[in-house]
Amino acid sequence: MREISSAQDLVDSLTNAGDKLVVVDFFSPGCGGCKALHPKICQLAEQNPDVQFLQVNYEEHKSMCYSLGVHVLPFFRFYRGAHGRVCSFSCTNATIKKFRDALAKHSPDRCSLRPTKGLEEKELVALAANKELDFSYTPKAVPVEEEAPVPASNPVPHPSMSANDEKTLVSAGR
């Protein structure tokens, strides 16, 4: 397991993971549930070497956690390639099955032809808006498609209608 050092480190780690499943563990050293669950999470990390496990220390990165909407601990987010976040949940020793089930569901090897997604756009914007973090992000411009103008001067007659049928429809307001 690798501890995240900054918002930029988290973004880079998710972006560079490719199609690999990434589990982000949000924890606090003073959290009893986090301490109790930690050995089991480490064991699952060892049993799943193809999964990248990252840790975010809530006490050191409160501002980042707040920007990402993490308000309960321990908290986990699973990310995979072009899919971005595939699930997120809180978990304790009593509900470790939830973690194992999510790991089993999202672990199968898959390959995506699309680019790695990482954090969602709104999460990146929230991190960048947080003045306590040393993180900058420029939102992606959304291309706007212009509709081609339809010429009104030459209406195209329907192939199955005669000129009289078309006049009838026009006069009926259809």
Provide an overview of this structure.
With 174 residues, the protein is of the alpha/beta class. The protein has one domain: Glutaredoxin (3-Layer(aba) Sandwich). It has helices spanning 7-16, 32-47, 62-67, 96-106, 121-129, 163-171, and strands at 2-3, 21-27, 52-57, 75-80, 84-90. Strands 1-3-2-4-5 form a five-stranded mixed sheet, with helices on one face. It starts with a strand and ends with a helix.
Count of beta strands? 5
Q: Kindly report the spatial arrangement of strands forming the biggest sheet.
A: 1-3-2-4-5
How many domains would you count in the coordinates? 1
- Strand portion, in percent? 15-25%
What is the typical, i.e. mean, pLDDT? 83
CATH topology heading: Glutaredoxin
**End-to-end distance:** 67 Å
The shape, in one word, is globular
Write out the CATH superfamily name: Glutaredoxin
Condensed summary:
It comes from Raphanus sativus (Radish). One of its GO terms (cellular component) is chloroplast. With 174 residues, the protein is of the alpha/beta class.
Keywords:
174 residues, alpha/beta, Glutaredoxin, 5-stranded mixed sheet, 5 strands, 35% helix, globular, redox-active center
